[in-house]
Amino acid sequence: MSYTEQDVHEGRRLMDDGRENRLVIGDKLLSITASGGDGVFDQYCDEISLNSRTARQYRHTARLCTPPVRQIVADSGVHVSYSALREGARLAPSGKPYDESYNTLRSLLKDAREAGASRVSVPQYRRALGMEPALQDLLDPSSETSLADYLASLPPQERDQALRDLVEKKAEVHDALKRVMDEKRRRDRETRGPECGGGKSDKAAAVARDLVRISDQGAAFMSRYPPSAPLDFSDEQRIACKEVLGTLDVLATWIRVRVLDEQAPVGSRAETRDLVGA
Predict the structure, then answer these.
(1) Rounded distance, CA 80 to CA 165, Å?
(2) How do residues 204-240 score in pLDDT, each as one tens digit?
(3) Is the terminal CB of the chain with fewer CB neighbours within 10 Å at N or C?
């Protein structure tokens, strides 16, 4: 064994401290790699209860995001999450990182400062790197980058076209939705248990729960009609579908105004947890 009990203690502490320390965890993993091979690395990951695949992502991102790069981000005053930094470090088909030396990110930071923007989002960064969003990531509500995040990062004139482009990938969308619903059913089976009763009803929890159900129903609805199922609508049916679209547009606006806009200050505070150097 090429690491000490102190290394294990420090690794566990970093894991307990939370997601904002992922670059710091990566630095620690780099030091363990320097003192031993893959066998030692995997053993250390077991000791601190960290999945070795995730650990390799942390290590790779920390290696690419050097201290000078981190300092540039910190000095910019613009929020950049670990998730964004990870996207820049990802290996392109060429075998090189998508944003080697983070030159594209530096350009985005400069643009953000000039525009008075407070953050560089993952979808914005992916678009600048020419990386298409992963459909399953966008459609899975448990992922870090949601479809709403992706669409919110687009200029208004590009938003509708982006949605159309996604929907027109018929087979891919259907397969992604099926995987999302299968994973949801698996999670439901694992977490199903007796409900706690007797307490006062929490209206906010009820709203969130109902909206999640609507989202699940929407995903299940789209999954129910594969690309092989022809859709030959009558004029009356098209009018009915158009009315549904209007209701859904109103619902989306209601969610933004009634839920998201009211909680903007809370969301802003939550975002700061994942700052570089936190």
Answers:
(1) 27
(2) 888 888 888 888 788 778 778 877 777 889 988 988 8
(3) N
Q: How far apart are CA 19 and CA 17, in angstroms?
A: 7
Q: What is the 3-state secondary structure (H, E, C) of the chain?
A: CCCCHHHHHHHHHHHHHCHHHHHHHHHHHHHHHHHCCHHHHHHHHHHCCCCHHHHHHHHHHHHHCCHHHHHHHHHHCCEEEHHHHHHHHCECCCCCECCHHHHHHHHHHHHHHHHCCCEECHHHHHHHCCCCCCHHHHHCCCCCCCHHHHHHCCCHHHHHHHHHHHHHCHHHHHHHHHHHHHHHHHHHHHHCCCCCCCCCCCHHHHHHHHHHHHHHHHHHHHHHCCCCCCCCCCHHHHHHHHHHHHHHHHHHHHHHHHHHCCCHHHHHHHHHHHECCC
The angle formed by the CA atoms of residues 190, 193 and 196, to the nearest 5 degrees, is 145
CA gap 205, 83 in Å, rounded = 28
Residue (of 177, 168, 83) closest to 131 by Cα position:
83
pTM, to two decimals:
0.52
Cα separation, 243 vs 249, whole angstroms: 10
Reported residue count of the chain is 278
